[in-house]
Amino acid sequence: MDFVQRKTEDSVVDYFLKEAAEKEIPLVWDRYEGSLPQCGFCETGLNCRDCLQGPCISHPFRDQNKVGVCGKDKDILAVHSFVRLVVQGAMGYLDQLTDFARGVEAKEGSPKRKQEADKILKDIQKILGNGDIEVMKKFPKTLTDGWKATGVYPDGIASALFKVSQKLDGGVGNVEETLLWAFKGALMGCVAQVLQGRLKTSVFGDPAPTNVEVNLGVLPKDIPVVLLYGHFSPLLKLKIADAAKGKKIKVMGVCTDSFVAPYIFPPVTNYGSQEIPLMTGAVDLIVIGDQCVNPSLAELAKIWKVEVVPTEVLNRGGLSSFAKEIVEKAQEAFKARSEVSRNIPNIKESGVMGFSAKDIDVNKVAKAVADGKIKGIAILAGCNNVKFTQDHEIVSIARELLKKDVFCVSEGCASVGLAKFGLLNSKQRDVNCGKGLSALLASLGKNVPAVVDLGSCENSGVTDFLLSMSSAGKKHLKEFPIVACFPEANRTKAVARAAWTVAMGVPTYFWPFLPVTGSQKTIDTLSGFCEEKFGAKLHVVTQKMEYKEKAELLVRSLKKV
Amino acid sequence: MKVIKVDPDKCTQCHTCDLWCGIEIGSERKELNDAIHEKPQPVPRVYVEGSNFPLHCRHCEVAPCIDACPNGTMRRDPTTGLVYVYEPTCIACWMCVMVCPFGIIAPSASFHTAVKCDRCRNMEYPICVDVCPTKALVLEEREEGATWYGYAPKRSY
Amino acid sequence: MRYIIIGGSAAGVSAVEAIRSIDQTSPIELFSSEGTPFYSRVLLSYYIAGIITKEELHFRPLEFFSENKVKAHLGQRVEKVLPESKSIRMEDGREYPFDRLLIASGSSPKIMDVPGKDKKGVVVMRNIDHAQEIVNHVEEIKTACVLGGGLIGLRTGYALSLRGVKVKIIVKSSHVLSQMLDKESAEMIQGTMRQHGIDIRTGRDAVEIVGKESVEGIILDDGERINCQLVVIGKGVQPNVDFLSSTQIKVNEGIVADKTMRTNLPDIYVAGDVAETYDLSTGKMGVNAIWPCAFEQGRVAGLNMAGKKVKYDGSFRMNSLDFYGMPLISMGITRIDGNQFQQVQRKTENTYRKLVLRDGCIVGAILVGQVQKAGILTTLLKKRVNVSDYVPFLMGNRINFADLLPLMKKNKERFAEVEYRELSQRPLVSRR
C-alpha cells in the first residue's frame, strides 16, 4: 500500500491498515493499487463480451475497430454496459425476496400477522407470472400511469428481466428504447424491495427506531463472536439468534440488515472495511451470504483461524438445524482460538437506526418545505468504494447538506458510515444541522437524529417514504424538491436502485460515474430523455470535484417549490 | 539512448498502450472521458500489430525519414538522439511515410502533419511502458557502440 | 585534409554533416552556383501555392555553414576540375586545391526546343529563381499552360490551381506521369484533377509558343490555340556533367559511382542527382534524381571521404504526392515489359495498389489512396528479400511490420541494422 492519499476517514480502520501494511497482509486497497491502470475501454463502457465472436471494444482513436463485430456501435456498447449492471442489481433484490418468501412458505418461521403474510406471498407468486399484484395499487396513480404510458410498468419478471437480458444479445435497437427496458427491469427490483419490506413487517412485526452502537469497539473480548456478513434470509438470522440466546454468544453484523425483531445485530463496520473486524482477532466465526461480501474473507480468515460458514450452499437443509450447527461451531472455534490475541480499539459511536416510513410525519416535512424552513430532501445511499477515501465523500456531503438545511434520509451501509461519525447520534443533532432543519427534526421526535436511517436495502424504507410523501402532497414526486445521491456507490444493486429512483421522478447523482461515458448519446439520453419521460435525470458527472462542489450541485438541483 | 523493447509473450493485445498514447500525447484535454470525444480524433503513436507486437518508432541509427524529409521537419534531439517531428514545419508531403521501414509514421490528413512516436521525449517516462498491464514493454539502453546520424538542431522544442 | 564540395543542395549538405560527425577540424569549402543556400527544391511548388513562405524553404538554419565551420562560396560556378593537380578552377581563374573532392552538382532541366521558348513568361521550373518569377506574376495570370506530364510540371500546375489560376496540362503520352504510373493509377489522379478544374490534354504536344514579348498563348499539334499568360516547361532533368568533359572521370548518363560513392579516380567522390549508381529495381546502373537518395548518397560519400568505410546499397526511384486529398506513392519499376516480371493489382472505388515482382522480389509498387505503411514496401524493395509467400498479405489492408517478423528471421543478413536487433528483449534477429 503506497499511495499518499488517506485511505479512510475512520481512525480505527486506519490503525489496522498500518498493521496490515507492516505485516504485508493484502487488503482491498493493495489489490486496487495493483489493478491500476484499469482498462480504459471497460471504464468508458466501450466493451462487450456477450458472444464468442469477441471480445470487442470500440477504440476511440482507430477507425478499424470502432464498431463491435456483430454491429454494436459505441452508443449501444455503452448503453449495454449500463443494462448489464441494472439487470444484475435488480436480480439482487429479487433474490433476497424469493429466498425469504420460500422460507416463509416452508413454514420455517411463524409470521406475526399471518393473513397479511399470506396475501403478500400470493403477490410474490404473481410476479413470477403476469405481475398483476396488489402492492402496485399502493403506488400513486400519477406514477403508475406515467410508467404504463412509457411502457416501463413492471409487469412480471419475464418481461422486466428476461426480455431485458436478451436485449444484450442483439437485435436492432436504439439507445432510448434500450434504456427504457433497463428502467423496466430496475422497477421490478423496486417492486421486489417493497414486497420484501412488507413481508418482513408481517412476519416479524413493526420495528421501532433503536439506539445502536457501531464500530469495532462493540466487539466483546472474552465471549464467542459470530459476525453475519452480507445478505441472506432473515429467517436464518432469526434462528441463529434464537440458538445463541442465553449461551453468552454475541451475534453482530457487517453489511447486513441489523433489525430482525426482536433481535438487533449491531453493525460492526461498513463495506469498505469489511476485512478489518477479522484483524481484531475477536471474531470466531463468520456467516457469509453472497451479496456484498468480499471473497478475500476466506483467505484472511485463515490468518486469524476464523471459522467460515457460507449460507448459500446447495443442499443446505432445514434452517433450524443449520443455525444450531453454526452456534456449535462458534463455541468450538472460540475454544480453539484461545491463544489468538485480541486487539480491540475502544472506538465506538452510537446512533439511532431502524426508522420506517411510518415514523416520519410527512405532513410536517411537507410543511417545512412549503414554509421554506428546509430546502428540500436528500436521499443518501450507496456504501463505500475503494476509489475514494472511505466514508469521506458521504460524511462530508451529508454535513454540508445538513448545514444548508436539507432533510437527509439514508439507507443501507451509507447509514453505518454516517453512524460512525455521529451523524445518527440524537445528542449531536443540533451541532450538525442548520436552524430550520433542527427545528423540523425536533418536531418529528425527541430522538430523531440529524440524518434519518430508513433501514437497509432489505427494507423498503426509502421507497415507502417517497410514496407517502407523494400521496400526502397529492403531487407527482417530480414536483417535490428531492434529490438522491450515491456518493461512494459500488454494487450493481446501487445502479438498479439509482435507475428506479430516477423512474420515480427523483434526480439522482451517482459517483463514481457510470460506465457509459464512451458514448455522449447515452449520457445525454440519461439526462434529457429521462427528464422527458420520468421528470428526472440520472446525472453522469465526469469532472473531478471536491465534496463542497458536489453538495452545491445537489442543493442546486432541489427544485424551488 | 534508451529504446522501448517488446516481450511478445507478455502482450495480450489489450490496446491499453495505444489508448493512453492517444489520450496523453495525441489529445488536447488529456483526460480519458474528454479525449475520446475530441475532434479531430487523436492519433496514437504506437500500433498493436501482428498478433501481439506493439510497434513504436525505432529511432534508427541511420534514419530514412530524416533523409527523406525535404525541409528538416524530421530531426534529432541533440542530447538523446531521439527522432521527432517538428510539427510547425511539416507540410504533409508524406515522404517520411514512404520510407519508414517499420511503417509507424501515420499520415494524418486531419492534423495536416506526419505523426510519429518520439519515445515521450518531453516526459519523464514513456506512457505506453508505464500503463502496460503485463509489463510487456520495457525501456532499455541501446546496445554498445550504436551511434546516430542526421540533422540535430540545438533549437528544438 | 582539405575537403571541397561542389554543390550546396541535399547531397552537399548531407556530406558536410557526415564529414563533421567524424572530423571536426579539417577545413571544408563548399561551392554552389546558386546564391540561395540550402533551400529545398521539392518544396518550390508549395511556395508557389502559398502554403509556405520563402524562409520556410530552407531545410537547415542559415547559420548552418558557420556552425559546421564550412567556408561557403555561394553564387560561384566551378568551371573545371583538374584531377591531376587535385584542384578546381573557378570562372574567374582562381584555383582551389583539395585532398578529397565531392561532386554534387545536381541536374538541370532538359531544354525543350519549341519556337518562342525565350519569351517572357515561359518558365523552365527548376530553381528558386524560376519559382520566384512565377510568384511575382501569379496575380496577373489567368490561365497557365504546363507542357509535359512529369511530376515537376504537375506539382507546379497543382500549386497554380490552388492559387486560382486556370491550368491546362499538355501531355505527349497517353497519360500523365508516364514514367511513374501505369494507366489505371494515372487515370485516377487525372480524374481527381479534372474534377477540380484542371484541364488535361493527353496525346498532344505544343508546337509553338506565341505572343509578342510576353507569352500570349500556345499552339498545339492539332492546330488548336490556347490563350495563356504563363507557360511552364517540365520535360525532365539531366545531370550537370559538362564541366567534367575534359577529365578522365567516367561519365555515362551521370557520373559513375562505385559502392563507396567514389568515381573511377581516387579521392574524387560523387553524390546526388548527378551520380549514376546501382539501381536496385532494374539491376543496372542508372541515375535516380530523388531527394532521399541524394541525402543518403551524400552521407555515404562524406563518411567515406572522412575515412569511415560504408557501403551504399543502391538507389531506386520513389515519389509521393497528394493532390486534392488523394495521396499517391510510387516506387521502382511500374510499367513492365517482358515476362521476367509479375504484377499484382487491386482496384477499388477510391484506392489502387500494384506490386511488381521479379523472381519473387519487389521491384516496384504503386499505391493510391491507402498509402500508410508504404515504407514497408520500400524497405522490402531495398533489401531485395523474396516475398513470394507474403504477396496476398502485402496487397491487403492489414499490412504491418509485425506480421513480417518471420520474413525478417529468414533473411537475417539483410536486416542487420541495430534497430532490427533490438525490437524485442528476446533475440528475434541475432548479430550473426
Please provide a written account of the structure:
Chain A has 561 residues and is an alpha/beta fold. Chain A has a six-stranded parallel β-sheet with strand order 13-12-11-14-15-16, with helices on both faces. Helices cover 46% and strands 11% of the residues of chain A. Chain A is built from 21 helices and 16 strands. Chain B has 157 residues and is an alpha+beta fold. Chain B is 19% helix and 18% strand. The longest helix of chain B has 11 residues, at 16-26. The radius of gyration of chain B is 15 Å and the shape is globular. The mean pLDDT of chain B is 89. The mean pLDDT of chain C is 90. In chain C, strand 22 and strand 23 (326-332) form a beta hairpin. The longest helix of chain C has 15 residues, at 291-305. Chain C has a five-stranded parallel β-sheet. The chains are: A alpha/beta (561), B alpha+beta (157), C alpha/beta (432). Chains in contact: A-B, B-C. At the B-C interface, strand 1, helix 3 and helix 4 of B face helix 1, helix 7, strand 22, strand 23 and helix 8 of C.
